[in-house]
Amino acid sequence: MADTLFTNARILDGTGQNPYSGSVLVQGNRIKQISRGTAPISASNATVIDGAGATLMPGLCEAHTHFSWNDAPTLALIQAMPLEEHVLWCAATAKRYLEAGFTSCVGAACAKPRLDVVIRNAINSGQIPGPRYLAASQEITVLGGLGDETLPHLPFPEFSFGVNVCGANEMRKAVRMFLKYGVDSIKINLSGDNFTPQSPADTTWMTDEEVAAAMQEVRMRGKRGIAHARSSDSVKQALRHGIDLIYHASFVDDEALDLLEAAKDRVFVAPGIAILYAMLHEAEAFGVTHAIAVGMGYQIEWDAALESLSKMHKRGIRVLPGGDYGFAFTPHCQNARDLEFFVKYLGFTPMEAIRSATLYGGQIMMRPNELGVVKDGYLADLLLVDGDPLADLAILRDPKRLLAVMKDGVFAKSPKLSARLA
Ligand SMILES: [Zn+2]
Question: Cα(409)–Cα(3) distance, rounded to whole angstroms?
Fold first, then answer.
């Protein structure tokens, strides 16, 4: 692996401190040395990349990723893709994420039992390019909950997106099956979702016995429980059972906020607000007019989510960008749009939004001391960005402005800048 020296860069390190100009030496897969200003770093045999003032920052983390969502408008149509095509889809999507600057992704459920595990293993073995990835299970749900629907208008009227369980023993069996496959996380659907009108977002569907059984198995194997939890009761239930990665959290009462705050050193919230926005304003081409979306409860949820998440951010709870890209109306690789939404709607500063996608990204990937920051000794996951993301976050989702992407010391997207050997 060749060493790389970035010179003349504006270093935005991910911690929240102001950018500074300097150079960064990458040796092997780690950041070896950083110098400020024009102080030279001696590096024989390193490939020198003249940043020409471009921003050098940590790779982004997507906290709520579904590689197997295949740009279809419904869960049923995502699931209908045959397995062979679905594997290829996931492999291609993983590559696209990496090239779009997401060097880390947290799997938040896959559409078929082993998709996430197979893709993670193929990335880790070097068989395919992709981000660092934590593989999730399918969604585990209860009869009638999110993921288990009756669709009388389709040829498959009894449709299940994940695994349905009824009672603690069935839960235990489902969890053990996914643990056997080698997942990093078990995804359980504690609340409903307005996407499935039979089980709306403010409802809570699983019993404590079922959740407790799941988490007992998860803990026994040293893995992680992650929850779809839009309702206030489901957020409290997640916290009660030690689930530290909560997806959505749209509706939270004061008690839920207090519990979240008390657990803020271990808990992460990844809301995925882009899909709420898209359903209200951008899904008409797919049959969901604004009026239909309002009727499905999306305006109520949007309003509640902005209030809930703003309060969480004020209380110092880690809220991370990403979520539910991969539907027709939330296309993959526009994920960095969440950073703009955090600023526009949740009261984040641009610096705070970037910190959530970088510093907190290393933490949610369970590598807090070596990932997500431009710092000596940290893993070399780096972006070279043309311009200042603090002034305009939208450049992070413009492929032309993303000059280079490095993961683990290797370019996934090589810079077109003039490079020379030192
Ligand atoms: Zn999701």
Answer: 8
